[in-house]
Amino acid sequence: MAMELLAHELAKRGAKANVFSAGTLGWGGPATNHAVKTLADRGLDLSAHESRRMSKQDVDGADLIIGMTRAHVNGAIAHDPDAMPRTFVMGEIVRLGRKVGPRQAGQSVRQWCEEVHAQRLPNRPPGLGSDEIDDPVGENLDVYAACADRLEKLCAELAELLLSDSYLAQSAPETIEIDPVDDHLQPS
Length: 188
Known about the structure:
Shape: globular
Distance between the termini: 14 Å
CATH class: Alpha Beta
Number of helices: 8
Order of helices and strands: HEEHHEHEHHHHE
Number of domains: 1
Radius of gyration: 16 Å
């Protein structure tokens, strides 16, 4: 759901963004029926989504990597420890991004991520428990809807941080590569 919601929020801001989803488990199946229905209720189509396992190439190529949990972040960093400055828990990137402020004209996503990374407490693992997004797999549609509500708010705020109105007014078009990581992509 995060992939589709973030892609939608970035597109609303006029961005050309490649938002990919890869999991730490990678079951190789479609999105759950509840995830498809939840996003369909919001006008988004997740029906063609197929889960896949995260690879080192995914990590290397992404300008920003977002995990739903701290375990997902650790999974991405295990592929490439140098990815730490651009790998965040979903709530963490928004929480710390607020401190840094929106990306500036001429600043790459990776440069902005390095500034956000500098806001982390030293010698602490990424994220806080409150930054994590609970996995709704196996839950009812109301739990999926609540998860999508939270994700939608975070994705909208992240899109604003990455592509603020002032940034868009001063910057040339670009392509952003984002890889939301989760492990709940098995069929329901």
